[in-house]
Design a protein that fits this description.
single chain, mainly alpha, 6 helices, elongated
């Protein structure tokens, strides 16, 4: 009889241990999934906000006082002031809309820590796009200031390329938008696959 009681006790301890281990593992899986889910939601929101911010920055619609917050040099002519102010519009718009872009850049590191380095280039597309926009703005200013001499073909090519980077294309091919859409689709697909696991 004692042997049967000991066997029952031992079996009870084993069952309790198995249940406890299963419970802990289940809790760990749930906690890990919850962290991934929350990160995926946060990344998606920042992704859409960053895309909107870049659309605002690239808007071809301007206002008369834009660029006027730029610190002026003492020896600027009125013409130079106008050109420099126009070139500064992109940076001014960025300053007003940079929060989601900065947040997305920060989230990138958490995301690639969980899901792999292959996603890094798609997050970086947003920062690269902003660099292209700033460069395009500066290139247009340099053309207007006569930095490229009299080479009409070179000037025409620089202006065409720079304007297509700086301003969203209402009609025709917008390569900046296409590049962003491609990067977004890859990040979005991964986030949706995580969010969809519990739906």
């Amino acid at each position: 009889m004692n042997e049967i009681l000991e066997l029952i006790k031992s079996t009870g301890v084993i069952i309790a241990s198995v249940v406890a281990i299963w419970g802990i593992n289940s809790w760990r899986r749930e906690t890990k999934w919850k962290r991934q889910y929350e990160l995926a939601e946060e990344v998606l929101a920042s992704l859409y906000e960053s895309h909107h911010a870049i659309k605002v920055i690239r808007s071809p619609i301007g206002f008369g006082n834009e660029g006027s917050s730029r610190p002026k040099n003492e020896n600027e002519t009125p013409q130079e002031t106008e050109i420099y102010n126009q070139a500064y519009v992109a940076r001014e718009r960025f300053e007003r809309n940079k929060k989601p872009l900065e947040k997305l850049h920060t989230l990138k590191y958490r995301f690639i820590a969980l899901h792999g380095k292959e996603f890094e280039e798609h997050f970086d597309k947003f920062r690269q796009t902003m660099n292209k926009i700033f460069f395009a703005s500066d290139q247009i200013a340099m053309v207007k200031l006569g930095q490229y001499g009299e080479d009409k073909k070179l000037i025409r090519d620089i202006l065409k390329e720079s304007r297509s980077d700086l301003y969203a294309q209402i009609r025709g091919d917008d390569k900046i938008e296409k590049e962003l859409q491609k990067a977004m689709e890859i990040i979005e697909a991964k986030c949706r696959s995580i969010i969809g696991k519990n739906n």
